[in-house]
Write a structure and sequence with these properties.
mainly beta; Metal Binding Protein, Guanine Nucleotide Exchange Factor, Chain A; six-stranded antiparallel sheet; 9 strands
């Protein structure tokens, strides 16, 4: 678990301000404590506890902090890892990637929302899952909100 007490940056890795600037004080009132911890302090929900881990409903997964569209059910797959897993984001600019050395020497790739910069999870590659990209976007359920297709 990588947790930091510092507020997340308001600019992306290239130094551009995020399109949506969040107020952590307001968000802390709106989100339940676990969601706030995961999204704004890069926390991790416990494996196999998230509401979307085995979710099969057709729809769009939005950022729980800013409501941007992030992932679709079409790219969701059952990895067995204990968190919702996708093989691709909805689009390349829906997310930003950062090098995460919090478990050094293990270096992971952190996934943040491309619109507001909130922490979502990590992406892993080359694990041998039978998916088109050979990637596992391992995303916390509490960072997402499923909007079922009507
Ligand atoms: Zn967001």
């Amino acid at each position: 678990m990588s947790e930091s007490v510092e507020p997340l940056p308001s600019v992306d890795p290239e130094g551009k301000p995020y399109r949506i600037q969040l107020d952590d004080g307001v968000l802390a009132q709106q989100l339940d404590p676990l969601a706030f911890q995961v999204l704004r302090h890069a926390g991790t929900e416990r494996a196999f506890t998230g509401e979307y881990t085995d979710e099969d409903t057709v729809g769009v997964y939005r950022c729980r902090a800013c409501d941007a569209e992030l992932f679709r059910s079409e790219e969701k797959f059952h990895s067995g890892c204990g968190w919702p897993s996708f093989y691709a984001p909805q689009s390349g600019d829906a997310v930003v990637l950062l090098e995460d050395r919090s478990l050094f020497p293990r270096v992971r790739t952190e996934v943040r929302c491309g619109s507001c910069g909130s922490h979502l999870g990590h992406v892993f590659e080359g694990e041998g899952y039978d998916v088109p990209t050979d990637q596992r976007w391992c995303i916390n359920s509490v960072a997402l909100r499923l909007e079922p297709k009507s």
